[in-house]
């Protein structure tokens, strides 16, 4: 090979070296996706199991024992306050009432005559005789009132608007005093009774809203308002009893139903959230990779509650607007070139998430650094918009945006 050929080879090699290096760097860069951090409005909610009860209910009985002569309604009928529901044979009671009524009328007539006589002849009767006559009238009035009240013992009157249950006896049966003939329930409104942990006693208050669901109407939410919070913790259970009133115009909620209850303590608490798959673990440390125009930095974070929708609350370490790397971060090292292939915008801040979704500190599915590098570098995520950047940048381990 002559000298000229050797020079040509060296020239071509020197021209190709930068191109090869650029291609190598481009091939070695890690493709990543990023998402902008935002805050969400959270609700402080608890979930308990309770039971539906009628606010007004009564077992209807006669105050006297006698044969049933009339029942004016059927099983399950709706009645209004003051309606006559059933009657007993009150023949003797009516006779006693009529007798007392006559005695009262006679006593009043005698007293009127005496008063007319005294008006003409003041000395016709002594004051003592007049007082005795007035006392007879008073006694007759008392006896009349007693006999009139006794007639009520032979009737059952609806004490409030409501729905009847089934009658236990029929016309012609002899029923003893205080034996329940039928019960009545007022089904609108109803109440749900349940108990909360004593740790939540300071949060519960009258007027807070509840949402109730029952198995019979799984797709229907019934709204209610707390109207009773027990002033003390139950000694046997260690819990606090709560009552909430629920409108029930269609009578779909029946006494005795079990109900799933959600009680809203507070509304509108705002917290930053971060995608769970962006959080990595190294021993006790939790951290994310943040993206900026010059590359990526490693940032330690303090996590809060899990939202159970792919996100976790961040108590410290990030601020709103930070851009966190959500995929590809498992392969990032110091000065690793990265290429942003997808940018997901911030989650809508108006979205509300119930904080009862998780009661414990989250433990994302985090593996050690060596285990994570064996996974694919890129996982496509759904996105409402994309922006592709071809420029490669490098990762930096310097922590930024630390929150005190």
Describe how the helices and strands are arranged.
Layout: H1 3-28, E1 30-36, E2 38-61, E3 66-71, E4 78-79, E5 84-88, H2 91-120, H3 127-152, E6 155-157, E7 162-164, E8 174-175, E9 180-197, E10 209-214, E11 217-229, E12 239-246, E13 258-275, E14 280-282, E15 285-292, E16 295-300, E17 302-306, E18 311-316, E19 323-327, E20 337-344, E21 352-354, H4 369-372, E22 393-396
Parallel strand pairs: 1-20, 2-21, 16-22
Antiparallel strand pairs: 1-19, 2-9, 2-13, 3-5, 3-8, 4-7, 5-6, 7-9, 9-12, 10-11, 10-13, 11-12, 13-18, 14-15, 15-16, 17-18, 20-22
Helix pairs in contact: 2-3
What does this structure look like?
- Strand 14 (280-282) and strand 15 form a beta hairpin.
- The strands form three sheets. The protein has a seven-stranded mixed beta sheet with strand order 14-15-16-22-20-1-19.
- The protein contains four helices and 22 strands.
- The two termini are 70 Å apart.
- The protein is 21% helix and 40% strand.
- The model is unreliable at 20-27, 349-391 and 398-404 (pLDDT under 50).
- It has 404 residues and is an alpha+beta fold.
- Helix 2 (91-120) packs antiparallel against helix 3 (127-152).
Spatial shape: rod-shaped
Query: Biggest β-sheet, characterized?
Result: 7 strands, mixed
Helix content: 10-25%
Distance between the termini: 70 Å
* Low-pLDDT regions: 20-27, 349-391, 398-404
Per DSSP, the total helix count is 4
Oligomer: single chain
Please give the number of β-strands: 22
β-strand percent reads 35-45%
CA gyration radius, whole angstroms: 42 Å
Mean pLDDT: 80
Structural class: alpha+beta
What is the topology, as strand order, of the major beta sheet? 14-15-16-22-20-1-19
Written as H for each helix and E for each strand, in order along the chain, the element string is HEEEEEHHEEEEEEEEEEEEEEEEHE
């Amino acid at each position: 090979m002559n000298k000229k050929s050797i020079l040509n080879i060296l020239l071509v090699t020197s021209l190709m070296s930068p191109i090869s290096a650029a291609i190598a760097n481009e091939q070695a860069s890690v493709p990543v996706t990023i998402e902008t951090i935002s805050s969400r409005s959270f609700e402080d909610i608890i979930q308990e199991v309770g039971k539906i009860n009628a606010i007004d209910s009564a077992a209807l009985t006669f105050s006297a024992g006698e044969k049933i002569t009339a029942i004016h309604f059927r099983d399950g009928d709706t009645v209004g306050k003051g309606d006559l529901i059933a009657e007993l044979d009150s023949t003797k009671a009516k006779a006693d009432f009529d007798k007392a009524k006559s005695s009262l009328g006679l006593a009043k007539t005698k007293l009127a005559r005496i008063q007319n006589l005294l008006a003409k002849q003041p000395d016709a009767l002594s004051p003592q005789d007049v007082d005795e006559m007035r006392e007879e009238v008073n006694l007759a009035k008392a006896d009349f009132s007693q006999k009139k009240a006794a007639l009520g013992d032979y009737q059952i009157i609806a004490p409030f608007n409501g729905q009847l249950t089934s009658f236990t006896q029929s016309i012609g049966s002899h029923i003893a005093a205080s034996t329940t003939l039928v019960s009545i329930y007022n089904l609108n409104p109803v109440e749900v009774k349940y108990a909360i942990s004593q740790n939540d006693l300071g949060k519960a208050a009258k007027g807070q809203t509840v949402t109730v669901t029952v198995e019979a109407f799984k797709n229907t939410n019934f709204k209610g308002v707390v109207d009773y919070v027990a002033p003390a913790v139950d000694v046997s259970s260690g819990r606090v009893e709560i009552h909430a009133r629920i409108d029930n115009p269609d009578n779909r909620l029946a006494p005795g139903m079990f109900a799933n209850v959600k009680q809203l303590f507070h509304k509108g608490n705002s917290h930053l959230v971060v995608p769970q798959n962006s959080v990595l673990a190294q021993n006790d440390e939790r951290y994310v990779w943040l993206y900026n125009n010059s590359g990526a930095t490693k940032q330690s974070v303090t996590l809060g509650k899990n939202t159970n929708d792919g996100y976790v609350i961040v108590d410290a370490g990030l601020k709103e607007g930070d851009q966190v790397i959500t995929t590809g971060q498992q392969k990032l090292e110091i000065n690793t070139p990265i290429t942003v292939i997808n940018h997901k915008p911030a989650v809508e801040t108006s979205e509300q998430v119930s904080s009862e979704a998780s009661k414990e500190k989250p433990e994302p599915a985090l593996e050690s650094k060596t285990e994570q590098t064996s996974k694919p570098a890129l996982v496509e995520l759904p996105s409402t918009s994309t922006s592709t950047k071809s420029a490669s940048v490098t990762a930096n381990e310097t922590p930024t945006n630390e929150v005190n």
